[in-house]
Amino acid sequence: MENFTEIIQGFQTLFIPLVFASCSLGFLLGAFFGAVPGLTTSLALALLLPLTYGMATTHALVMCMGIMMAGAWGGSITAITINIPGAASNVMTAVDGYPMMLKGQGAKALGHAAFASMIGGTIGTILLMLTAPLVMKLAFLVKTPGKFSLILFSLVVVILVERKSVAKGAVTTFLGIMLGTIGIDVMEPAARFTFGSNFLVEGIDFLPLIIGTFAISEVLIQSEKSHSEYQLTNQEIPNQKIRRKDFLPSIKELKEIGLMAYIKGTLIGYLIGVLPGAGSSMAAFVSYGEAVRSSKDPDKFGTGILKGIVAPETSNNAVCGGALVPMLTFGIPGSTPAAIVLGVLIIHGLQPGPRLMTTQANLVMSMFAALFISASVLLPLTLWSLGPYFMKILYIDRKILYSSIALVAIVGGYVSTYSTFQMLMTLVIGIIAYILRKQKYPTVSLLMGFILGPMLEEYFRRSLYLSDGSILIFFTRWDSIVFLVLTVLFYFSFALRKPSNTKNNGEKST
Amino acid sequence: MVKKNILKRVNSTSLFAIILIIVNTIYLIDGINTAPPMTNGKPGITFVPIIISTLFYIAAIYILITSIRKESASSFHLSEVSRPIAVIFITFIYILIFKPMGYILSSIIYVFSFMFLLEEKTEFKKKKLLNIFFSSLIVVLLIYLLYQIIFKVRLPAGGVF
């Protein structure tokens, strides 16, 4: 009952005109960044991060929620219309969406993608509202050794979800941890790994790391193509009229898809969202794979069927809710956008953890309300009002777009400390992330290592101080044992299983 | 021909793995020189970093060995990265002139150079350059409006403005 009152208060806060305007603006930004190939939700959040210094915490966080939800859906627009997914999480949507577009059913495919995203996002948020308070209560029971084992479990998950190259995932995770060790030690007032530089004593700031990893590296990747090279791809856009009335899914089509398809996709997305670093693209792949596996006609997938759109779109939006559970309760982000939202919390002096729900109940609930309204109201409204004009996004001047991103990013590096050293740091991290991406190293694990590394070290050392240096403390406390067992189980159930062919199929199709 | 190909391919998976191993070695040496990993039987400030560095070696050496074994190790061509290198260069110059010249002037130069780089070289005419200049001006002023006016973030005025 108490939670219900808090949820209502969260909605009341959201409906304050300026707060709601922030959420709506965030949603439009997220839809834009999601829809344009090359721009991602993480990039939108990274660019927003320096601006949040001048914003109220609630405004900043509801804006982030709008971006998260819209970004997960926005990529489906270009995935369906031109077979170029706006984000990796929409790769599977293109597999059946684009064939529908070629059959002249583009508007129908867009409508079903939006409807599935709406269902996934809404149910995912309801699950978040129901489970987050329970998880927060359970989180109080996890003590220091248990927290170490939980962080260890999270890092193992972050590394293992890089199915294509676990070793590369490990390298970037360790690199992230190493970057996090630069500066003052987590427990003692001693500087380390400063390499003789006074600038490094304070350590690497969160802001340059995020902006460098997601914005600068993207600008460098995009600068590989000239303006005219990019324009060539736009010539391949099918000339098809998108009408509003075709967006509405019919009862017959919904019956054909079945309620279970929506529920299954949502649950898969939500549960994968809870896993640290797994993210929405993994959720979409797994959900699509499961839809194919459980189908009576698996051969029809890839030819342009509605179930092939519903599976990935429900799950990638349900991730938004799931990813916030570990982030708010333990400070462990479930996805890259959640990791950047964690940065917003830190910038505003808030410490994620089980106490956050009691000390900042209204703020947390307004975040949940923003996710809910974004999925259930803003998403269908945006499709209805702007849907026929979405194709225009593709004709945007690339020079203006990327020069604006580069400027916001570099100046964003400056605003955290008003120092050009942080701007330089943003550029250096951007170059490192660019090289890593060119070498096919995952950059998400770099960020996860940077966030989780200091926590891992602190809990490890605190535990050993408590036990006078005996590592047995991790094997004798039940909270620690639970997460160590989970780590072993996850390793055997996930790492030793061969990756399914679904991913490959998806990549071929796009 | 073979020599030309080798020259063109300045990087590869194995070369990058070697660079990572060198960076890790520098990190490890700095850690060892800073403080002992254990003090009074308890982990010190370099204990966890040394463990992480050791694990880093294992992963990087594994990548190195597998990339040498594989015939088609990933690589990138120098021509492919020429424009990104130019972007890095102009960004570096921008950082240097940002405070002395102030946000507006330095940013106009930066955005103009950035747009110039993304444009096809064959297309440059006076009208095109003017177009790029006015686009840069609008972008710079809009972002100034966003940071300085809306979000009250103080940007350097420099000696000119």
Structure explained in plain terms:
- The complex is a heterodimer of chains A (510) and B (161).
- With 510 residues, chain A is mostly helical.
- Chain A has one domain.
- Helix content of chain A is 72%, strand content 1%.
- Chain A contains 23 helices and two strands.
- In chain A, strands 1-2 form a two-stranded antiparallel ribbon.
- The radius of gyration of chain A is 22 Å and the shape is globular.
- Mean pLDDT of chain A is 86; it is low at 501-510.
- By secondary structure, chain B is mainly α.
- In chain B, strand 2 (38-39) and strand 3 form a beta hairpin.
- In chain B, helix 2 (13-34) packs antiparallel against helix 3 and helix 5 (103-118) packs across helix 6.
- The termini of chain B are far apart.
What does this entry show, briefly?
The complex is a heterodimer of chains A (510) and B (161). With 510 residues, chain A is mainly α. Chain A has helices spanning 2-14, 17-35, 41-51, 57-82, 91-102, 106-139, 144-160, 166-181, 206-222, 227-234, 251-257, 259-274, 279-294, 307-330, 336-347, 356-359, 361-386, 398-415, 420-438, 444-466, 473-476, 478-495, 502-509, and strands at 183-184, 191-192.
Question: Characteristics of this structure?
Answer:
heterodimer, A: 510 residues, mainly alpha, two-stranded antiparallel sheet, 72% helix, 1% strand, globular, disordered C terminus, B: 161 residues, 2 domains, two-stranded antiparallel ribbon, 70% helix, 7% strand, flat
- The low-pLDDT segments of chain B are 6-10
| Count of individual domains of chain A | 1
Our Rg estimate of chain B from Cα atoms comes to 24 Å
Overall mean confidence score, pLDDT of chain A: 86
User: Quick one: overall form of chain A?
Assistant: globular
Number of strands of chain A: 2
Overall, the morphology of chain B is flat
Structural class of chain A: mainly alpha
Helix-strand string of chain B: HEHEEHEHHH
End-to-end CA span of chain B: 55 Å
Biggest sheet: strand arrangement of chain B:
1-4
- Low-confidence segments of chain A: 501-510
Q: The biggest beta sheet of chain B, please?
A: 2 strands, antiparallel
Strand order of the largest sheet of chain A: 1-2
**Individual helix count of chain A:** 23
What is the oligomeric state here?
Answer: heterodimer
